[in-house]
Amino acid sequence: MSQPGTDSTVDLVVLGGGSGGYAAALRASELGMSVVMVEKDKVGGTCLHRGCIPTKALLHSAETVDVIKEAAQFGVNGTFESVDMPKVNAYKDKVVEGLYKGLTGLVKSRKIEVVQGHGRLVSPTAVEVALEDGSTRRVEAGHVLLATGSVPRSIPGIELDGVRVITSDDALVKDDIPASAIILGAGAIGCEFASVWRSFGTDVTIVEALPHLVPLEEESSSKLLERAFRKRGIKQELGTKSEKVEVTATGVQVTLEGGKVLEAELLLVAIGRGPVSADLGYEQVGVTVNRGFVEVDAYLQTSVPTISAVGDLIPTLQLAHVGFAEGILVAERLAGLPVTPVDYDGVPRVTYSHPEVASVGLTSKVAKERGYEVVEATYDLAGNGKARILGTAGAVKVVAAKDGPVLGVHMVGERVGELIAEAQLITTWEALPAEVAQLIHPHPTMSEAVGEAHLALAGKPLHSHS
Q1: Residue 338 pLDDT level (bands cut at 50, 70, 90)
Q2: Catalytic annotation present for 441
Q3: Is the Cβ–Cβ distance between 387 and 394 less than 8 Å?
Q4: β-pairing verdict for 293-294 and 235-238
Q5: What is the mean pLDDT of residues 337-364?
Q6: What is the pTM of this model?
Q7: Within a 10 A sphere around the Cβ of 258, how many other Cβ atoms?
Q8: Which terminal residue of the chain has fewer beta carbons within 10 Å of its beta carbon, N or C?
């Protein structure tokens, strides 16, 4: 690492060390570029430290609770005693720390310099970093990549205090289990915390302004999740907004449209994440920013030719794997390699609740809006041997163009997130249902459900009603 305060000139300076930023840095280094990555916190960003990894660790602890509680149905007599949240958090933190050490070692091995401090764009080819010792350092580069990520959003009028009214960041470090919780927002973050807390014994109510849980998913998937959540005792207030939030002596009070009042120990605001772009010099240098998001073209170049942007900072899907793909694309474009724009329709999406919701491609509604004549088939997991063994309910739905390729695959059930990669290949390669129906899936596995749905759509159902 260069000495603090010294200037340097490199091929690429990356502002932000999250998923998109470090993916670009790693690939650029592989391609022979000199790279400096500026990060004010820890390399790995939201996904590693406050998002994907720690939340999924909590979900695994919650799944373990459910396995113990439900063991009797599998002929195993066990007794559930309690959840020790400090130990759960220690397990979660150990997972994160192990991955963080691996990532920092990988970055070091690629000879990528990491400058820790608060970076700011000061020209089309330079970032200035305020270092921890109070000094500054300017990094000049042939190209600048903006990858400053996102933070949890709130709603005007709702004051986040970190105790009674909290964000997902706060929820991840709680050392106790709330007796009751209201969750504002039914996207992936809201549904995953609802699932965790319910497994831990919390009385949970989800409030969502749109008509369904995970409202961007296929409507049938949303309804299956709603049914599963009701069966688990997770209450839902759908198609309604909160009008007022008050902190009381014992918790929070949320007043909904129409006057209904909900009370709980805490309120989790999980309405999504907003881009980190304010006061970083972007607009002053000429980068076009719209409602906080940096605008880019299909190749992730901003309005300034020497500046690109990736990840949650731009108005694409806020998913770590999208950031990885975008970072790699930028690095390869700068190296002069032929690149193809990211196919955002083809990005797999997973909500890791109990049960999981996974999808790729178009919903039937979007397909129809785009002019397709749609045909569909749904395979109920009740007919799947492995699903029966696991004791999970759900379905796989396939949406295809009439006499044409598969447009979307939508799943609900335990571990369906592990099946979505095959579905991505099916939709991306524009496979016909009959072509997928010819593939042989191992028995008994959950993956058979993908094959069965395509068999049904091809007109030759095996373990499902025609």
Answers
A1: very high
A2: no
A3: yes
A4: unpaired
A5: 97
A6: 0.95
A7: 8
A8: C
Q: pLDDT-based confidence at 449, cuts 50/70/90?
A: very high
Return the HEC string of 305-352: CCEEECHHHCCCCCCHHHHHHHHHHHHHHHCCCCCCCCCHHHCCEEEC
What does DSSP say about strands 406-413 and 395-401: parallel, antiparallel, or unpaired? antiparallel
Nearest to 103, CA basis, from 18, 169, 35:
18
Q: What is the pLDDT of residues 187-232, one digit of tens each?
A: 999 999 999 999 999 999 999 999 999 999 999 999 999 999 999 9
Please say if the pLDDT value at position 8 is more than 90.
no
Structural Rg of the chain based on CA atoms: 24
The domains located in the chain, with CATH, are 8-50+89-151+274-344 (3.50.50.60), 165-271 (3.50.50.60), 355-457 (3.30.390.30)
Mean pLDDT of 133-157: 95
> What does the alpha-carbon distance between residue 33 and residue 394 come to, in Å, rounded to a whole number?
48
**Per-residue pLDDT tens digits for 374-431:** 999 999 999 999 999 999 999 999 999 999 999 999 999 999 999 999 999 999 999 9
Catalytic annotation, pick one of 49, 60, 143, 443:
443
Three-class secondary structure assignment of the chain? CCCCCCCEEEEEEEECCCHHHHHHHHHHHHCCCCEEEEECCCCCHHHHHHCHHHHHHHHHHHHHHHHHHCHHHHCCCCCCCCCCHHHHHHHHHHHHHHHHHHHHHHHHHCCCEEEEEEEEEEECCEEEEEECCCCEEEEEEEEEEECCCEEECCCCCCCCCCCCEECHHHHCCCCCCCCEEEEECCCHHHHHHHHHHHHCCCEEEEEECCCCCCCCCCHHHHHHHHHHHHHHCCEEEECCCEEEEEECCCCEEEEECCCCEEEECEEEECCCEEECCCCCCHHHHCCCEECCEECCCCCCECCCCCEEECHHHCCCCCCHHHHHHHHHHHHHHHCCCCCCCCCHHHCCEEECCCCEEEEEECCHHHHHHCCCCEEEEEEEHHHCHHHHHHCCCCEEEEEEECCCCEEEEEEEECCHHHCHHHHHHHHHCCCCHHHHHCCCCCCCCCCHHHHHHHHHHCCCCCCCCC
